[in-house]
Design brief:
This protein has 2 helices and 8 strands; from the N terminus they run ββααββββββ. An 8-stranded antiparallel beta sheet has the order 1-2-8-7-6-5-4-3, covered by helices on one side. It is mainly β.
Length: 135
């Protein structure tokens, strides 16, 4: 199976779409996005580590996390997301914001994200659509 990642950019809508099929059952793909012990293993850019401080996956629930580069050459980034929609094993919708280390939101940093999960013959197809508040 191809593990190719497809990336689509829409500059007019300020959207980034990433699609990938992974060779795991749908429930494992879902848990990889909704359980802190799993998301800390892969979330963020390559050579960065993630720390989850809170993850309450339900509408209105909060996800607070930070990302830190392994080599320490830039400052740790803090983020807070609020779940808007949760449809188990099918869809997550949340608004993510950058924050300071006291969890105060950074103005105009909203990222509106929808993650869909689809069972396919080779495993699970994930589609992440992020619309940025500003450029």
């Amino acid at each position: 199976m191809s593990r190719k990642v497809e990336i689509f950019k829409d500059h007019v809508r300020r959207e980034l779409t990433i699609e990938r099929t992974v060779a795991i059952p749908l429930i494992y793909a879902w848990e990889g996005w909704t359980k802190p012990e799993h998301i800390t293993r892969w979330w963020g850019p390559k050579y960065w580590t993630a720390t989850v401080y809170e993850m309450d996956v339900r509408p209105g629930g909060i996800w607070r996390y930070s990302l830190r580069p392994v080599n320490g050459d830039v400052q740790e980034a803090y983020c807070k997301a609020v779940y808007q929609e949760v449809v188990e094993t099918l869809r997550l919708v949340y608004i993510d914001n950058f924050t300071d280390k006291n969890w105060t939101l950074v103005e105009n940093s909203e990222m509106y994200t929808t993650v869909t999960f689809e069972e396919v013959m080779d495993g699970s197809k994930l589609r992440i659509i992020t619309r940025f508040n500003s450029i």
